[in-house]
Amino acid sequence: MPTPRALYQFLDHAARFYPEHVAVEEAGKGTISYRNLAALSDRLRDRLYYMGVRPGDRVGIYLSKSIDAVAAIFGILKSGAAYVPVDPTAPVSRNAYILNNCSVRVAIIERRF
After folding, report:
1. Most exposed residue of 22, 36, 53, 59, measured as fewest CB within 10 angstroms of its CB?
2. Rounded to whole angstroms, how far apart are CA atoms 51 and 105?
């Protein structure tokens, strides 16, 4: 296998060679393996494509720090898009400004927000 060059390629490499190793541990919630994290990020990549996200687009991430947030970052990168993190604890007006100013095409939002 060629040497990984993009961040998401390191995940795919680890999923191939260390599939059952722990990739992310979320305090009080559990863990996810490299294989499962890669699969979850692939599903998000495919969903983003279905929603019209193309390479070069920007995708907002409105999630608390979690396994889901890590999977979202990798899924966005796999789609060729850039991620725009917004802080769920920041004022709504600030987040709206960031999302608008960055021309975010799609936002991934945690249900409780």
Report:
1. 22
2. 9
